[in-house]
Every structure is written in C-alpha cells, then in structure tokens.
Amino acid sequence: MAKTERSVTAVLEGAPYATRITTRGLELIADEPTDHGGTDQGMRPHELLLGALASCTAITLRMYADRRWVVPRIGITVSMDRTQEGAKVETEMTILVDLPADLPTEQKERLVQIAKACPVHRTLENPIHLKALLT
Question: In this structure, how many other beta carbons lie within 10 angstroms of the beta carbon of residue 50?
C-alpha cells in the first residue's frame, strides 16, 4: 500500500476572512466576497476545492493525451450543488470536459473516462477521514 502525505497551512490574521495559504514555499489567498463579510481578495474555500478537482483533471488529461494524440486545448469546468438539512449535507459535483470540436469522438470518450482517474477525483470518491487536533 502506497502512502502519500501532503501538508498545507492556512493562517488568518487581520482582515475578516482573508486567509494566507502556503505549501512548498508557494502562497495564495482564500477569502469570502464582500457580500459575505470578506474582502474578496481570493477564491472562496469551496471554489478552491472545485479548482483542485478541475486542475487535477486537466493535468491528468494532458498527461494522458500527450502520450497519444495532439490535443491543443483541454478545458475543465467543475460545478457543485449542495443541499443541507440540519447537519446532513449532500454534495454533487459535475465535471464538464471541453475538448476541441474536431477531436475524434472515440478520443473524446476516452478522455472523459480518464478524467475520472485523476488523483483528486479518486480522493473525493473514496472514504475521507477528518480529524481536528490542537498543536
């Protein structure tokens, strides 16, 4: 069994919700829009989650396609619908794969299949165990 460990740190100081996220020396800002009390300096946390799935899917398709065909552009749009009743949350994510119109149908169909194999997709479809600890 292969084990992979990743770590990201989020620090919120000052502005109401603007949060500095760092990993491997890289940084980005997460925030809430002004109509939710934030300063709109970055994507919302759920948008970051959708972005992780969209970018991972695009990268996975690029890696696969580059070994087989010429696919000049790969576009991925991920949308999310959430329904909440009390503590129960039901989430559905939809992945739209946008490929060049002139790409043969069998290549498009194969790439849609491969989209489901991206590591973030597989993580989200399998059990996730969350725990919160004090440092």
Answer: 19
